């Protein structure tokens, strides 16, 4: 248990018994009186912390902050129920609890700096001054200005502290900002549209191509590197091994067999080893010779062995790296440093690919385990745990993904020594699987690897022909932005090819609608112009291509095609007019006409996941949609192959299959479709 410190300030007597437990799921854990609370038993996989330390909270505030945190984990505590105090409906997650403690630590430290020893010393003017300092960055030393969303968190915290008044030792004597909600006080927009901007196409497309290249082309050698790294003798064993004449004989035997003396590559944690110097530790690891043969103070010092090594180098019998041979031209130098560094690059590539193609949150990625990829379902899926809006332990669920994700999952299973795929388990797995995976650290290595030239890249070797990943100061690569980017671009450019062998439409994810819709254009303003250009370009390509156009509105576009071909001078004008009401979609495009729209007035709703597809007179199909319809056809075929189908379900499936086959037949010849006439 943690150390205990009594609050000597005057006030109401404590309302919670000192020996009361702190969380509904931790009845045998830390107690209210402890100044360090341990949440290990409810800590999600990959979560960075298990502790809440109240020693950083000023003594006058500590008991009330503890009360607030306890009611996060026990919202229906008997004492709170009897007092009519309810600050939340469900038990908080560990992330929420830690975030609350951090906010309250900053808030109470500010109060202490202003001479406010308890919450009872505050008034409305103090609360207003605190928000003013938050906005200007003066709320703490070396602080930075905070935006409305952050300010809202502190407004909520103060309002909840006020709700604790019947139980608090030093209650607030006022209601902060009565009759105003936290968003209004903070000046935060109440728009419901997602505000996370997608990554620019010129950043995201090279990022995805590089991730795919690392996973599909480079991963076999990287995995072999890691195996060699783990098999190498650890540093603490280097003093063991043969010495004296036995060391000389062993070294001579290997040199006669073609052994090359390894040289430092200039990569690694130590800055003291210059490139080109003899890597003695690699020799001791590989040949089983004791490092003491080089120590003058050791009775096993063997200068003959050192002279033999130096003579071999002088004769040109050396190589950079020396951990393992390789026939891959992209990595010409493989030493221990490369074998330790490059698995992090591969791990970052897998994180990028899985996050982008599945839409999983960071907590869900952190919880990925072995055998997560399921190919038995109609649509391949990845299984993990989701924690948002769930109970403390989370809930198992699956995410639909394109099959390209399977390669990433397979690579992670080979990298990991534990059941958890994104674990930092150490060289031998002794670190366990509970630690947080710090994606930002590996992302830095990944971008540096991609952007470096062949002579500066870790491992050196030939050029990988990858475009550089260029980031603006405001660009952030994380699970949220990756999830958001694919969702927006899949709704905007369903026919675009991102360089991983599939179109965006086929990579479309089952994301919450807020990620693909953008009512107020808070995020997609950065691509509005590009979207208009893309629609016009796609229409122009479609109309001049001569490929089949199907769907209820296919005839309308065929009429436009005739006009464009017969009078090319009017082509741009006609295409621009059609593009004004034309929207690209994953399953179908929409030539929107309000009078005939099955989705109703207000414009196309493809990005809102509201579309009646070919049951709507406005739907248009062409070659970009064929992969999705083929996938649906295959899905129906698999379902129909199942035994013991209910007759009504079978009838519906056959009706749906006939509809799909009809549209595909209009887009492709029967022999390509595999349909019998």
Automatic annotation (TrEMBL):
This is Integrase. It comes from Microbacterium aerolatum. The keyword Iron-sulfur does not apply. It comes from the Bacteria. GO terms for biological process: DNA integration; DNA recombination. GO terms for molecular function: DNA binding. The keyword 4Fe-4S does not apply. Residues 1-25 are annotated as: Disordered. Keywords: DNA recombination. InterPro entries: DNA_brk_join_enz (IPR011010), Integrase-like_cat_sf (IPR013762).
């Amino acid at each position: 248990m943690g150390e205990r410190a009594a609050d000597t300030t005057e006030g109401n007597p404590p309302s919670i018994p000192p020996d009361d437990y702190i969380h509904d799921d931790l009845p045998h854990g830390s107690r209210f009186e402890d100044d360090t609370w341990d949440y290990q038993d409810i800590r999600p996989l990959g979560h960075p912390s298990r502790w809440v330390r109240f020693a950083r909270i000023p003594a006058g505030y500590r008991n009330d902050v503890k009360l607030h945190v306890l009611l996060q984990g026990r919202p229906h505590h008997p004492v709170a129920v009897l007092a009519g105090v309810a600050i939340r409906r469900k038990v908080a997650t560990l992330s929420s609890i830690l975030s609350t403690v951090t906010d309250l630590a900053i808030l109470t430290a500010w109060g202490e700096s202003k001479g406010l020893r308890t919450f009872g010393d505050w008034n409305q003017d103090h609360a207003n001054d605190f928000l003013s300092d938050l906005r200007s960055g003066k709320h703490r030393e070396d602080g930075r200005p905070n935006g409305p969303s952050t300010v809202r968190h502190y407004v909520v915290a103060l309002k909840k502290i006020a709700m604790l008044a019947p139980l608090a030792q030093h209650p607030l004597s006022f209601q902060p900002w009565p009759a105003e909600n936290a968003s209004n006080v903070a000046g935060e927009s109440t728009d419901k549209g997602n505000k996370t901007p997608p990554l620019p196409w010129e950043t995201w497309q090279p990022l995805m191509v590089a991730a795919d290249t690392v996973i599909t082309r480079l991963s076999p050698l990287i995995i072999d590197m890691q195996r060699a790294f783990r098999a190498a003798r650890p540093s603490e064993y280097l003093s063991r091994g043969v010495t004296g004449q036995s060391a000389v004989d062993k070294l001579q035997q290997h040199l006669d067999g073609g052994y090359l003396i390894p040289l430092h590559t200039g990569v690694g944690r130590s800055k003291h080893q210059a490139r080109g110097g003899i890597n003695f530790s690699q020799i001791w690891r590989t040949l089983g010779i004791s490092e003491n043969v080089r120590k003058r103070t050791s009775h096993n010092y063997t200068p003959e062995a050192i002279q033999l090594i130096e003579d071999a180098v002088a004769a040109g019998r050396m190589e950079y790296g020396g951990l393992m041979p390789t026939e891959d031209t992209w990595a010409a130098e493989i030493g221990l440093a490369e074998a330790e560094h490059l698995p992090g690059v591969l791990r970052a590539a897998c994180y990028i690919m899985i996050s982008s193609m599945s839409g999983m949150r960071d907590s869900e990625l952190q919880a990925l385990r072995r055998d997560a990829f399921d190919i038995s379902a109609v649509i391949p899926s990845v299984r993990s745990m989701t924690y948002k809006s769930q109970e403390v332990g989370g809930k198992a669920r699956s995410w639909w993904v394109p099959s390209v994700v399977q390669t990433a999952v397979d690579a992670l299973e080979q990298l990991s020594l534990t059941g958890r795929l994104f674990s930092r388990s150490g060289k031998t797995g002794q670190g366990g699987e509970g630690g947080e995976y710090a994606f930002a650290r590996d992302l830095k290595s990944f971008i540096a690897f991609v952007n470096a030239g062949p002579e500066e890249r870790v491992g050196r070797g030939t050029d990988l022909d990858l475009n550089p990943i260029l980031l603006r100061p405001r660009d952030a690569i994380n699970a949220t932005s990756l999830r958001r980017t694919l969702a927006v671009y899949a709704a905007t450019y369903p026919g675009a090819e991102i360089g991983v062998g599939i179109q965006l439409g086929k990579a479309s994810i089952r994301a919450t609608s807020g990620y693909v819709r953008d009512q107020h254009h808070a995020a997609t303003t950065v691509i509005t112009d590009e979207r208009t250009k893309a629609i016009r370009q796609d229409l122009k390509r479609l109309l001049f291509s001569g490929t089949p156009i199907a769907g209820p509105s296919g005839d309308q576009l065929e009429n436009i095609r005739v006009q464009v071909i017969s009078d090319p001078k009017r082509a741009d004008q006609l295409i621009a007019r059609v593009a004004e009401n034309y929207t690209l979609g994953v399953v179908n495009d929409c030539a929107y006409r309000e009078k005939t729209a099955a989705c109703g007035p207000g414009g196309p709703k493809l990005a809102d996941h509201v579309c009646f597809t070919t049951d709507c007179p406005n739907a248009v199909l062409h070659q970009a949609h064929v992969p999705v319809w083929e996938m649906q056809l295959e899905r129906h075929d698999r379902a129909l192959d199942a035994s013991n189908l209910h007759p009504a379900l079978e009838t519906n499936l056959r009706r749906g299959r006939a509809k799909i086959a009809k549209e595909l037949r209009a887009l492709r010849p029967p022999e390509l479709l595999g349909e019998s006439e």
